Amino acid sequence: MAESAEHDSVDRVLAQWNAERPDIDPAPMGVIGRISRAAATFDKALRDNFAKYGLQRWEFDIIGTLLRSGPPYRLTAGQLTASTMVTSGAITNRIDRLVDRGLVDRETDPDNRRQVLISLTADGRKLANEVVAHHATYEAELLSHLDAGERDQLAGLLRKLLTGLGDTTPKD
């Protein structure tokens, strides 16, 4: 892959570190700085995109998680907590808000009265399906500066980084 002749804002920071502290290697700062800047840019873009549907990112995260779980589009509160990486207190509050919006239902598991089941309503399923179709296209647009091979290479490198940092598939 050819190096880009363009410079980003992180290049300036690295040049300043090289000038001020030539005794340290700021290259790791470049990698982490770029990941952080990309994450912040993606976060804003996705927030703005979900707002077009009257959703916050966390709302789509929950209804999308329920949709991709497949029929009957139901998970326990614990499974949702693991999939969304928030605390049980936060998930309870978020579910309450989605119940109020009519996007999910909450019921006690008849097979285990200590568990709560969260299900997509028909309205929640309709909205999730509408948003996910546009969301996939929008994310492809955000990555359009990379060709398919570069996207695959980047995904592989990020996967390697994340698993090295301890991010592994949660157990069901």
Automatic annotation (TrEMBL):
Keywords, comma-separated and alphabetical: DNA-binding, Transcription, Transcription regulation
SMART domains for this protein: HTH_MARR
GO molecular function, one term: DNA-binding transcription factor activity
Coiled-coil intervals: none
InterPro entries per UniProt: HTH_MarR-typ, Tscrpt_reg_MarR-type_CS, WH-like_DNA-bd_sf, WH_DNA-bd_sf
UniProt domain HTH marR-type: residue ranges: 28-163
Keyword DNA-binding carried by entry: yes
Transmembrane intervals: none
Entry-linked SUPFAM superfamilies: Winged helix' DNA-binding domain (SSF46785)
Protein name: MarR family transcriptional regulator
